[in-house]
Amino acid sequence: MSRRADAMRRALRALGLAAAAWVLPAAAQPVFYNLVEGTPLDFSDLEYEEETAAVKTFKRSGDNPYNGDHGAIRNGESLFATACSGCHGHHAEGKLGPGLTDDYWTYPANNTDPGLFSSIYDGLTGQMGPQKNRLTQDEMLQVMAWVRSRYTGDPASAGWRQSASRNASFLTTRPHPPTKRSPA
Predict the structure, then answer these.
(1) Can you say which residues are annotated as belonging to the binding site?
(2) GO CC terms for this protein (predicted)?
């Protein structure tokens, strides 16, 4: 084998490794979708909002850093009481809107933190309007942490307890339309 061919092979291998190092981290980042339309969320209209470290971590990994954080959960409870309890009940048990503490999700993507964030941020059908102009993204993460702390279902079914990077169903596919509960 000639030196030139060997050098070319090494250069191509290095170029391939450099490309993989650039592409793979981007591929692991979650993509946030509107759960009704299936379109990517647009964060550009929040130029006035400074992203906290927690929001940056969440957008990079899909894991809510406030899950299990007692201070954030307390703040989330207060925020939920003013922004969400009118429809979802004071304890997230359901009222006009669905309960948020069990295994049933009208939008299955809400079993993941990126999915629940997308629902809160951009809204859903019916009465669930977008909260992006009512709550900051950091406040949304705190509300989510409180909702997750109220969970009464099977821990094995709690998709948000898995690392978002392993939750391929949300990261690689667009959301599915809502499912209907079958009559009992």
Answers:
(1) 84, 87-88
(2) periplasmic space
